[in-house]
Amino acid sequence: MTIEPRAFRDALGLFPTGVAIVTMRANNGERIGATVSSFNSVSLDPPLILFSIARSAKAFDAWAGASHFAVNILSESQSEVSNRFARALTDKWDGIAEPADPKSAPLIPLANACFSCECHARHDGGDHLILIGRVTSYTTTSGERPRPLLFYRGRYRKLDPDVEIETPRGVDYSLHGW
């Protein structure tokens, strides 16, 4: 079977994802960030997460050598920030304060969750590089019912938290493995 890239991308778009901004501090001190939907948990013990970055990314070399980075899970009110970090050559950091520690990876204010990581492993992912991070600290929103920014079929979407589908007891562990 020949895989046509656009049709393959459309098929992948049938899987809804959250939206995250990954951030790091380059060796020269520059703040670097990119919007990704390729974020996933890997392990609880040790605490590992992953994301992938396109080899075509302007800052790919910096990502490939990153020793520390952060993954910021966006809330549904942050589509503008997501758009800004998805575009090359824009002022991504407008309105985002420098972290107190100038060596640390910047965090995105008002994100639902922020995970600070040290790089644990890198793996070839074809036209992407897969970075696995060991979580060294994290914060979550203080909101009682955080609402995530979702991406589905090439568009941002909203979660309707008031519509629930019955989930049998215990299935949460078997579905997720944690």
Automatic annotation (TrEMBL):
Residues 12-158 form the Flavin reductase like domain. The keyword Oxidoreductase applies. One of its GO terms (molecular function) is riboflavin reductase (NADPH) activity. Pfam families: Flavin_Reduct. Keywords: Oxidoreductase. SUPFAM superfamilies: FMN-binding split barrel (SSF50475). The keyword Oxidoreductase applies. Belongs to the non-flavoprotein flavin reductase family. This is Flavin reductase (DIM6/NTAB) family NADH-FMN oxidoreductase RutF. It comes from Rhodopseudomonas rhenobacensis.
